[in-house]
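mind reviewing both lines:
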Amino acid sequence: MLSHAQIRKFYDAFGQKQDKQFYEAAALQSLIHHGGFATATSVVEFGCGTGRLAATLLAEYVPDTCQYTGIDISQTMIELCQENTAKFKNRVTCIQSDGSPKLPMQGQSADRFIATYVLDLLSQDDAHTLMDEAHRVLLPGGLILLACLTYGTTPISRLVQSLWSGLYALSPKIVGGCRPISLAPLVNPEVWQTVYSQTIVSYGFPSAVLVARKTT
């Protein structure tokens, strides 16, 4: 797996090319559709990237009073996120992290937590820590919204997944450190209630989309 320093270096260089990941659009739209954003008051996004999703949510889906906090390891991504959300002014906070999955905010301070195409980049330990942190940060009844590369469900998506996994095995840097994973094992049914789970195939790329509610 890529180290935190390698991840930062890759995405600092990748920059705006992140928005050309065309296969993500269908999964992100599904996540938005099932995220209940019309009632959101505080959104936290881990791995905010260029701020494309943040700008969309703030412009079209969340109330005008909703606050957004974006966190990313890449300074380039934080600068792009600030630029793309500038018109929303004091409703937006962008924070550069050191790569740790620990979140720099108080418990029960948000009602939506987003991580898209991030868990497939993290180590298993960091992924579980991030899930614990999301649970800590969310209010009771708050939603966690996840999307990531996953395993194929159709012949073409199985082929794409196999090719992607082969490239990852050759060198994780080729695919930005991401690899197909399953989200279900990360969602502890003792503290989360899954309200939506689907594999979406777009242009042959399989993505898992999962929305779960904090229960305890």
